[in-house]
Amino acid sequence: MVTPDPLPEKALPNEVQVYLQAVTRRLPGRVRSAVAAELHANLHQRMLDHSLGLSVADAWAAALRDFGPPQQAAQAFGQVYRWPQLLRTALAALLLGTAGYAAARTLNWEALGWRSAGPVQETRQLNRVP
Amino acid sequence: MEPNLFKGNLDLIVLSVLSGGERYGLEIGKEVDARSGGYLTLNAGSLYPALHRLEKQGWVVAEEKQPPRGGPSVRYYTLTPAGRSELQRRREAYRTFDEALRTLW
User: Fold this and answer.
1) What part of B 65-104 touches A (C-beta under 8 Å)?
2) I need a surface site. Which of A40, A51, A106, B47 has the fewest CB within 10 A?
3) Interface pTM (ipTM) of the complex?
4) What is the structure's pLDDT at A96?
């Protein structure tokens, strides 16, 4: 028999929300919500285990104690999803660098009173032209 | 229990439980605790990341379903054929290592 949810989703205790955020905040966006949903659903089942002898609030607190510190879960999940995050950071840095270099090449530095950013060899060749 | 032994055999523990059929995370933890007489305990910090790692490796697949007692849908994990082969390989590797070690005692 399916028992009714003793605590509606909107009334999720603040401690549970803090736990879920602490575990998932460094994860990539698409993974973050999936991991939070899974942990929330399993915490809910653990809360039901405790709800036989405790108030709903105490049952949630007991479930959180059973799940352990969020830092450990956050670190372990970070290792599982580390490479996509690193790859994204490296790609973003590469794109930013390329865009910055292209912008520097198109600027007329001499008009701004600065020496040209062009390669030294090109400048020397230009100087030889009578 | 010895933390390094536990960490090194976490995948073997989880795959072993899933060889009995589909389970969601909390069920896996409860079963490990009950069958090992409380010697092995899986908390969230080790169990759920391990399940996601096994899923990425293609050894388990997950499906969201409503649990019998109600509440939000949980992810039920099932061994894939590759996961079953991996479990067999790891069992044999563990047995061989254990036997070799015992010859030194």
Assistant:
1) 66-75
2) A106
3) 0.93
4) 84
